[in-house]
Amino acid sequence: MGKKIMILGASILQLPAIIKAKEIGLQVIAVDMDPNAVGFQYADIGVNISTLDIKRVTEAARYHQIEGIMTIASDFPLRTIAEVAKELHIKGIDISTALNVTNKVLMRQILNENNIPVPKFHRINTLEEYLQSTKGFLGKYIVKPADNSGSRGVVLVENYQDSEVMEHAFNYSKKYSRSGEIIVEEFMEGPEVSVETLTYENTTTIIAITDKVTTGAPEFVEMGHSIPSQLGEDIKLEIENLVKNAIQALGIKEGPTHTEVIVTKQGPKIVEVGARLGGDNITTHLVPYATGVDMVKACIEIALGNKPTLNQSIKRASAIRYFKTKEGKIKDIMGVDCAKLTPEVRNIVFTKQVGDKISNIESSNDRIGFVITQHEAVKSAIEMCEEALSKIKIVIE
C-alpha cells in the first residue's frame, strides 16, 4: 500500500480528491461527520467525525500515521489542517495563515494594510454598530457573515432608508455567522472573476482566470463559470499581479488558492481569498477541460511535500451553467438524453431527484444540477451549455 493521505470531507465536493489519490496509489483516510458521506465508499478508511474537531482529527491522523493532509472546495477545515500539520510535522498551511484566510474581517484588514485594493468595510457585532456603520455608505451595500461560504447569509441592501429592510439583512446574515460577527461592505459593480492558483515554495502559478455569472441581488449565488476569461489582456495581467500580492500578504507559501475579484471602475478589487481549490466544478472539471492541468493531483503532490505537475497540455475552453429553479417538489425531469446529444457536452449532473423538495435559490446548496461543456472557443462553450439546459424540462409542483 502507498503513502497515507487524510482528506477532510467525504461529500461529493471532495470525491474527486479521494478518487484521484486512489488512482495514484495512495491509501486514503477520509473524514466526515456524515456517516453516509459518498466518499466513504471510495476511501480505504472512513473516519466518522467532524472535520472541525481538531482534537479528534489530530488523534485519528496520528493513529493512522498519515503523511499528508488536505481538503478541496471547503474553507472550514483549514484550521484543522494547520493544527494537524504542526503536530505531525507534515506539509500544510500554518496556523496564522489559516486564521487569515478563514476570517473575512482579518483577511480584509491584512490586505488593506498591504495596500491591496479591497472594498470599504466595517466589522460588526451588534445591531447598534450595524446601523451606525451603514451611515458611511452613500449607496448600496453588502452584508455577509465573517466566516461562512457558498453565498450563505450574503444579502444586498438597496433601500438603506428602510429600517425594516436594514434589520432583516442584519438578522439574516448573523444567522449564518458562526462567530456572530458580520461584515458590512460597499457594493462593488463590475465583471466578477475567480483566479485559480497553486503556490509551491513561495512561488505562485496562475492556472486560470474564470468568468462568473450569479443570480445577482440580493443573494448573488453563482450560476455559471467559464474559462478562459473574456476580459482584456491588460486587465487580466492586472488581476494576476493583484492576486499574487494578496497571496503573499496573507502568508500563503504552499498550496492552492481560489480568489474572487471584481473589476470596478477604480480597477480590480479583491472580494475574498480562499486557501483551497475552487468549488462549483471549476478546478475538478473546467480547469482540466480548458488547460489540461490536474489541480487536484497537484494539490495531493504538494500535501505530500512533492513538486506539483503544472504543465498546460491543452488550450481549449470550458463552461458550466446551473439549472434555474423555483421552490416546490420535483415532479419530473425530461429531455436529458436529448441534451446529451448537444455537441461538446461533457457532463450533465443532478444533485436532486424526482420527489425531492427544493427551495428558491438562496445559496449554492439550493441548486439542483448543472451542465458542463468543452470547446475550442469560450463563447461557443457557453452557448452549448445554454442550448443543453434549454432541452431539459424540470417539472415542479
Question: At the fourth CATH level, what is the homologous superfamily of the largest domain?
Answer: ATP-grasp fold, B domain
Q: Overall mean pLDDT score?
A: 92
What is the number of E strands?
Answer: 19
For the termini, the CA-CA separation is: 51 Å
Rg over C-alpha atoms, rounded to the nearest angstrom: 21 Å
Strand order of the largest sheet: 13-12-9-10-11-14-18-16
Backbone structural class: alpha+beta
Output the CATH class name of the largest domain: Alpha Beta
Enumerate how many helices there are, as a single number: 12
* CATH architecture level-2 label of the largest domain: 2-Layer Sandwich
Percent strand equals 25-35%
User: What is the number of domains?
Assistant: 4
Q: Any key phrases for this structure?
A:
4 domains; 397 residues; eight-stranded antiparallel β-sheet; alpha+beta; 28% strand; four-stranded parallel β-sheet; single chain; Dna Ligase, domain 1; D-amino Acid Aminotransferase, Chain A, domain 1; Rossmann fold; globular; 19 strands
